[in-house]
Design goal:
- The chain has 341 residues and is mainly beta.
- The chain folds into 2 domains: 137 residues, Immunoglobulin-like (Sandwich); 157 residues, Immunoglobulin-like.
- Helices cover 10% and strands 39% of the residues.
- The strands form 7 sheets. Strands 6-9-10-4-14-15 form a 6-stranded antiparallel beta sheet, with no helix packed on it. Strands 1, 3, 7, 8 and 11 form a 5-stranded mixed beta sheet that branches. Strands 17, 18, 19, 23 and 26 form a 5-stranded antiparallel beta sheet that branches.
- The radius of gyration is 43 Å and the shape is rod-shaped.
- It starts with a helix and ends with a strand.
- 33% of the residues are buried.
């Protein structure tokens, strides 16, 4: 009887020791992850969001990774919001370049249940290695209705770590700005003489003045011109070399009196708009433009914003053999512009 009792006592002691050993081995098998964070990509309350997880393993061999948003304390990731989506997508295609961690390997799949997202299809992880993965669904998580600190638990295989994330009332900053309207219209000069004396044997043009336009008017800009004499007038000779019909394209002929004004070149510059000379005042294709009078007549326009558009403006005249001689033939041409905002 005593022998049997001693044998039973030894067996019990062995059982206790074995249980303790198993318990110790179990504790030793579970370790803490380190250098870990969960980035929820929106922190505002009641907001659906994607997320990024970065963690460093302790041991090797994990083939699943999970995130329990409820954690192990009194903070609860629940409510009308505060859930995880049942349908999940996980990818590590882009996180490595951003974080410097190793992309979570494997053919990844993910699903959500209650407060936990589980990632499966993971190739066995190495020990003491940093990994990253993105929960790419825009509704992977929905933040709780209540702002505060929450403590999700991340588990990789048998290792885990408790993290802290913050939910706030509003996580966005609205930046307002004003771009004021601008319009700049500059003439290169205010005197534009003919390149040679007028002659019945030729059509003579002025040297030209440029108009440079800069504007941020989204609908473009317009330019107009008028003159004071409807032609070239000499007080001494009491004579006006008449303008051609204002608003109608004209080509002057040597020996026939006429005076016209036109755009001989257009530089587009940069911007969204295209600058064109008005048909009547387009002197780029053989015609000399059109006559002017006291009415402002459109000479050019642009369809959008402009930086450095340049118009070359020239007058042209022809006379006949009986045009009176005088050295005071003159006309004053007014050129203006406006932005179309």
């Amino acid at each position: 009887m005593k022998k049997s009792m001693r044998m039973l006592s030894v067996a019990a002691s062995a059982f206790v020791m074995l249980g303790g050993l198993l318990a110790w081995q179990g504790l030793a098998a579970a370790a803490s992850l380190s250098n870990s964070y969960l980035r929820i990509n929106r922190m505002a309350t009641s907001t659906a969001t994607s997320a990024r997880l970065v963690f460093k393993t302790a041991g090797a061999g994990a083939t699943t990774v999970s995130v329990n948003m409820n954690g192990a304390d009194s903070t609860t990731w629940t409510g009308t919001a505060g859930v995880v989506n049942a349908t999940q997508t996980a990818s590590s295609a882009s996180c490595a370049a951003d974080t410097g961690a190793t992309a979570l390997p494997g053919t990844l799949a993910a699903s959500g249940s209650g407060s936990t997202v589980t990632i499966t299809g993971v190739t066995a992880l190495a020990a003491a290695t940093s990994y990253c993965v993105d929960l790419t669904s825009t509704s992977a998580l929905t933040t709780p209705n209540t702002a505060g600190e929450y403590h999700p638990v991340v588990t990789a295989g048998s290792d885990n770590i408790t993290l802290a994330v913050r939910v706030v009332t509003n996580d966005q900053i609205v930046v307002n700005a004003v771009v004021p309207p601008t319009f700049n219209f500059v003439l290169s000069g205010n005197i534009d003489n003919f390149s040679s004396n007028l002659s019945a044997g030729s059509v003579v043009q002025t040297s030209g003045v440029t108009a440079t336009v800069n504007t941020n008017a989204k609908n473009g800009w317009l330019a107009w011109a008028k003159d004071s004499n409807t032609g070239l007038t000499s007080t001494a000779a009491a004579k006006t070399i008449p303008s051609t019909t204002p608003g109608t394209s004209a080509t002057l002929t040597a020996g026939t009196e006429g005076f016209a004004f036109g755009i001989t070149n257009v530089v587009q510059g940069s911007g969204t708009g295209t600058t064109t000379a008005a048909t009547a005042y387009n002197a780029q294709a053989g015609a000399h433009g059109s006559g002017l009078d006291a009415t402002l007549r459109q000479i050019a326009s642009s369809t959008g914003t402009t930086n450095g558009a340049v118009l070359t403006l020239k007058a042209a005249s022809a006379i006949n053999g009986s045009t009176p001689a005088a050295n005071d033939y003159t006309d004053t041409i007014t050129v203006i512009g406006a932005g179309n905002f």
